[in-house]
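Hi all, long-time lurker, first post. I run a small reading group and we've been trying to get comfortable going from sequence to structure in the token notation. Rather than ask abstract questions, I figured I'd post a concrete chain and ask someone more experienced to write out its structure so we can walk through it together at our next meeting. Sequence below, copied exactly:
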Amino acid sequence: MIPSPYLLYLGHSADFIGIKTSRGLATFRRDDCVGEFRHDDCPLTLDLPRLSMADAAARGAKTMVLGIANGGGTMGADLVADAVAALEAGMNVASGLHQRLRDVPRLADLARERGLQLFDVRDPPAHLPVGTGNPRPGNRLLTVGTDCSVGKMYATIALAEGLRARGLAADFRATGQTGILIAGAGVPVDAVIADFISGAIEQLAPARSDHGWDVIEGQGSLFHPSFAGVSTGLLHGAQAQALVLCHEPGRAHMRGIPGRALPGLRETIDMNLQVAKLTSPDVRFVGVCLNTSRLEAQAAADLCGRTADELGLPCTDPLRMGVDGILDHLA
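-- Answer (accepted) --
Happy to help. Here is the structure in token form:
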């Protein structure tokens, strides 16, 4: 486990989606966060106290979390310098980026000298199996999306919490760096060698016989040229009985690819069912989750109502409206 409390890193970020890991921790583990670190040119905030490295350590922060994401998951010179400052202040450093902290000699040497730890969250487990697609008992739900970063993790956590509130056993199965930091466990599926993705998910959500649910966090989109492979492996490994579609209304283009439009909701449903049926022939969609954070409350409610009518599925914003309609449909 990564020692808490945390200092959440925003750095020089100007991209709201790009700080999703820090934002997720601020949302779901706020009591474990003492503050945020950002430079003067960062216009974003998590509404936590803005602290220097020294102030955060004085307030008891044990780990600075580099909770940002960028194309390729690399660390620039500024980020490395900030990680050095955190270590010099006496904090451990955790990162979900693809580039490993331990592979930066300056950080590795300093952590060793200070008796501190570097946590690379995007390390997949060793000795992952190859997926088989063989049927296994248990109830599994997977979130899927029209694009990446549309709210799949938020929806997955809300659905797991909703099932538990109804007295059912339910486990949130994290597959990305933010979810893993929130849950304390999981598989960073986008760092798994392609041949082992479906096997990793079979291992993450194994057979169960307690009538409970594994609620599996989706990644990417079947329609995103960069990440469709990860999405496919998740669908095959999850062998889900139930799928929930996630979407952000009004998004201008696929994440990171200007000019490429998002697919339609019905098109996304049909494609995910086709792919999922390879290992789960009876799979079905049980609802739609919209990220309506950019809409006024009434406009969000109206859009969810229209979407439900058009698709014949319950539709909600899980953070603003809850997930009871989807769970009723799941029963």
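A couple of things your group might point at:
The radius of gyration is 20 Å.
The chain has a mean pLDDT of 96.
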